[in-house]
Amino acid sequence: MATAKQTDRLWQGLHEVEDPEFPMSVVDMGLIYGLRQEGGTVFVDLTFTSMGCPCMDFIISDIRRRLLREPEVDQVHIEIVWDPPWSAERLTERGVAALETFGVGL
Question: From residue 28, how far is each of 23, 40, 48, 92 by CA, in Å?
């Protein structure tokens, strides 16, 4: 199992992965439902704002590429999760502020 410091570093890395459609990270968008590391493998539970999200492949690829840059990460396993469905309540405070800056009301 990963230490808290290693897990924090993984979360920080995911803050660098931006949603291609919105000006914020996938973390602030609330797309990451879970993150854990076992040995050299990182497991990510990921959702999308809709089943028809046109950016799914880009986001998956960007998450994998970013996490593989971390020390001691050899593999990234991404599980797509649809339950519970994504809603605007998953946005972080920073995510809400980013949308408001661009005129998107919630």
Answer: 10, 25, 13, 5
